[in-house]
Amino acid sequence: MTAADVQNRIDAYPTRNDGEVKVIPRGAPVVWGTAATGPMDQRTLDGFDARGYLSIDQLVGADEVAEFHRELERLSSDPEVRADERCVIEASSQEVRSVFDVHRISPVFARIANDPRVVDRARQLLGSEVYIHQSRVNFKPGFEGKEFMWHSDFETWHAEDGMPRMRAVSISISMTDNYSYNGPLMIMPGSHREYISCDGATPEDNYRKSLVMQGAGTPSKEVLRDFYDRYGIDVLEGAAGGAVMFDSNCMHASNGNVTPTPRSNVFIVYNSVENTLEEPFSAPRPRPEFAGSTDFTPAGRV
To answer: Where is this region: Disordered (predicted)?
Structure first.
């Protein structure tokens, strides 16, 4: 894409434009596939279309969950991994908070990222082959796990990665039991049907801060109150081995974890191969490869 192309392209989802805040209808499908194109039935697809997310009671078995824990422990104790930019460490406790790019650096997490149980569902929702836009393992330790403020992932991926449209889906696979009190995922059901353009501008190298604490791209309190009044909040509890898939534009957040019970999950983002990245829409340059991949090789096909 040339500089002229970037200058002249139409941005359907403007954001971070000098104080202009708008709520815009989604204007695009939520579910692109059908019941005939994947493992999920029409009722499940209709529920995802309405709420913006779906829950899977058990996606992986106890042996796989144990393997994930061993691999997270290995990565967390590896000095090279801890020193890598792809590893986010809690400043106060020095505990590993996230390890990004795990489908590239870990054979264990590469397998689940390319597993038909996951990829076939992503293909069905997005109606095409999919590639991995981002992957990570998150760990929210007991007493120390920090909160993450309300946001839409698509706003960031559009502004800073150049994702053109809302044709991406995330899956969070639980490695621990998620209770209402240990900082689980919270979603405003139905919020995926409206896009919030946010205030301000994208700071230089914003990703360094946003991977730890959402700043730029956070909606105003007034807009969030309105969304809460209209959509409410679902707190997504569930057992280890379960999973949640949610649309890229869902308004979501998580509380801090002040309980003794840790929480960890494998998080993978799939984007349609028909929705590959362009130049960022509201940032001077793209985020690093580990935050927004430009390898569009279809998942599950290697």
So the answer is: 279-302
Q: How many CA atoms lie within 13 A of 176 on its CB side?
A: 22
Residue type, 85: E
pLDDT tops 60 at residue 188: yes
Q: At what angle do helices 116-126 and 42-51 cross, to 10 degrees?
A: 70
- Helices (DSSP H) in 52-115: which residue ranges? 62-77, 79-83, 102-105, 107-113
Gap between the Cα atoms of 60 and 172, Å rounded: 12
The predicted pLDDT at position 4 comes to 47
pLDDT of residue 203 exceeding 80, the answer is no
CB atoms within 10 A of CB 254: 22
- Amino acid in position 197: S
Q: Which of 141, 151, 131, 132 is nearest to 175 (CA)?
A: 141
User: pLDDT digits over 247-302, tens only?
Assistant: 999 999 999 889 999 999 999 999 999 999 999 999 999 999 999 999 999 999 75
CA dihedral (299, 27, 54, 261) in degrees, to 10, reads 90
The single residue listed with the structure tokens 């081995």 is 241
pLDDT at 211 over 60: no
Q: Is 149 helix (H, G, I), strand (E, B) or coil?
A: strand
Q: Is the pLDDT of residue 236 over 60?
A: yes
Dist CA 176 CA 265 (whole Å): 7
Domains within the chain, CATH numbers bracketed: 26-272 (2.60.120.620)
DSSP 160-201: II---SS-EEEEEEESS-B-TTS--EEE-TTGGGEEEEPSS-
Return the SS3 of 104: helix
Please list the residues that pair with 54 across neighbouring strands.
Answer: 245
Beta pairing, strands 234-235 & 185-187: antiparallel
